[in-house]
Amino acid sequence: MTLYDESVLVEVSDTSASPPRPRAPDVTGAHGGWGWTLIARVANEVRVMPGPGGGKTVLVRLPW
Asked: pTM higher than 0.85, yes or no?
């Protein structure tokens, strides 16, 4: 996480090369599905880039 004057930059890496995908949120909370939907609604910028070891890095800029 990096704080800027008007935004917060969040970068997360993992070992999966599969891109994030929206899925139907589970209203019971048992199986998630809320994260990508929430990011799509509040983020100013979203980038998915190749990451270390064949995985990916997801960069999200959120308004501050």
From this structure: no
- Read off the pLDDT of residues 38-52 as tens digits, 9 standing for 90 and up: 998 999 999 999 987
60 C-beta neighbours (distance < 10 Å), count: 20
Query: Which amino acid appears at position 52 of this protein?
Result: P
Distance separating alpha carbons of residues 47 and 57, to the nearest angstrom = 8
Q: What distance in Å separates the CA atoms of residue 46 and residue 12, rounded to the nearest whole number?
A: 12
Residue 61's closest CA among 24, 19, 20, 12?
12
Rg, C-alpha atoms of the chain: 13
Quote the tokens at residue 13.
Answer: 């890496």
